[in-house]
Amino acid sequence: MRENSSPTGGVIRSSTASINEITNEERRTVYEYVVQHGPVRPRRLQEELYPNDRRAIDHHLALLTQKGLLVETDDLVRVTTDLNRVAESITVGLSRFDSLVEFRPATDADRAELVTAIRSMAGEQPSVETTSTMATATDDGTLHRRDSAGECAVYVATIEDTICGLVHVDATARSQTAHTATVTGGVVESRREAGIGTRLLAYARQCADRCGYEKLYQHLPATNRRGIDFLVDRGWTIEATRNDHYLLDGSDVDDVIMSATVDW
């Protein structure tokens, strides 16, 4: 796993799929600088990396932009969120459905459907974090992000272009936990008990692996025995329990912390 120290003491992970494409060491340095520092002005890049050679930074930026690794907008250079580098769409046939089920990264065109799906699951509390985390992902315009604060991504399952399941992967850049990510999500009620949740979880796990993560976590209220059993049956373990962590419907409820290694 490749890690880069940030000025704040955190760790920013360059996408394994992206960084391996950069064979030129100087261009790799430029790319990793942008990953570590978030959106940065070209002038700052030149001052920090090539203070006496404007043509060199222009050359490297042009090639990195041409390869789709960096993008420059509003006089800011940022890492491209090219999802095809870490998440390829796949389709599978499940016996319950006549149509294929597609698993893919969410796009801006999915935003309205995502909100609808989230709201349909909001009252069920499949995960206490699901509603707030997913609402943040849809409301602030950031379905996929990679910057100095960390990474997040939203993946969906669709049948005939209609969203039937979703999963959100979120990670911070703190050095102590940079190798881990938190997963939340669910499947709409009418599409459950058909294998979509299992496949969607496996898809998110595969994407996390390609991004270099080593361990995934989920937080579930102890009252959600169905969700806990679902994860245990798929190789997750109960790593810890925080007593009376949640207040649900006026009652104190334990937080069950589930974990799974990515290299399965």
UniProtKB/TrEMBL annotation:
The UniProt record lists the keyword Transferase: yes
Domain of life: Archaea
Domain N-acetyltransferase per the UniProt entry, residue ranges: 101-263
EC number(s) from the headed UniProt entry: 2.3.-.-
Keyword Metal-binding: no
GO molecular function terms noted in the UniProt entry: acyltransferase activity
Keywords from the named record: Acyltransferase, Transferase
UniProt xrefs under SUPFAM superfamilies: Acyl-CoA N-acyltransferases (Nat) (SSF55729)
Protein name in UniProt: GNAT family N-acetyltransferase
